[in-house]
Amino acid sequence: MKLKHITQWRAALMLASAAASLTAPAETFTSISLPSLDTDIRSFNDGAAYSPLFPATSQTLGGVPFNFQADVIGNTAFIGGVGANSVTIPVNVFGVSSVYTLINTAFGSLGADVGSVTFHGSLGDTFTIQLIEGQNVRDHYFGSFVNTTSDPSTQQAVFGINSAGHSHLDMQTFTLPIGFANETLVNMVFTDNLLGSDGLPFIAGATVLSSSSVPENSSSALLLTMALIGLFFIPRAKSICS
User: Fold this and answer.
1) Per residue in 137-168, is it b (16+ CB within 10 Å) or e — as a string?
2) Domains of the chain: residue spans and CATH
3) Which of 25, 22, 19 is nearest to 226 (CA)?
4) Strand duo 126-132 + 168-175: pairing
5) Which helix (H) or strand (E) holds 185?
6) In whole angstroms, what is the distance from residue 175 CA to residue 156 CA?
7) Which residues contact 217 (CB under 8 A, 6 or more apart)?
8) pTM score
9) How far apart are CA 159 and CA 152, in angstroms?
10) Cis amide leading into 55 (omega within 30)
């Protein structure tokens, strides 16, 4: 192969790579605000450990950004049972692939179905995850209740200390069905089944990961593709005509 052709092929490969990067999906984290707070986790066992998160901060835990909140009377999470056993959390983000939550419980019995999280899409899709003690949720305090989880999608102690006598927050990763990639995630509903000492789940934070193409770059990608075609065919045309 002539040096000229090698140079053209190198240029073509560079253009192809640039075109691919322009049309590749962009993943974005969006931290979600909780619309209702009814308990202060700082008042729980070893709750003082949570003080650095409040009254309102943005923290990255387990590689995921979360916004923490405190209302005017100092509540920092939703636990249910105080006024309502569920809260609808608005999301309104298109193309969500994964949802990250900070959910633990007060008390807990191994295997108890203590609550759920249900996701609602704009095209009618719904997806529900049950919160099971010892599988994807556990007591926030490492003591005499459930202290372990078996589901690998739950990352233990992304905040706090994971040992006896200490409190912590765990992070769940919920992967949504593929249908949600083509619609808006309207909301998520967190429900507490009000089982008392068998486990009272609370949510302290939520973040979604969305993926979408970058349409404003489509014209640039088209131009690069046309240039690539030109680089490939022009030398061949010359050789045919000679």
Assistant:
1) bbbbbbeebbbebeeeebbbbbbbeeeeebbb
2) 30-212 (2.60.120)
3) 19
4) unpaired
5) strand 184-192
6) 17
7) 22, 23
8) 0.80
9) 17
10) yes
Structure tokens at 11: 């240029």
In the predicted model, residues of the chain with pLDDT beneath 70 are 1-25, 82-83, 212-242
Q: What angle do CA 125, 130, 135 make, to 5 degrees?
A: 135
- Each as own residue / partner, the long-range contacts of residues 148-156 (CB below 8 Å, 24 or more positions apart, any chain) are 155/62
- Segment 91-129, tens digit of pLDDT: 999 999 999 999 999 999 999 999 999 999 999 999 999
| Residue 174: other Cβ atoms inside 10 A | 18
Tokens 């593929």 correspond to what residue? 178
**Contact by Cβ (8 Å): 155, 136:** no
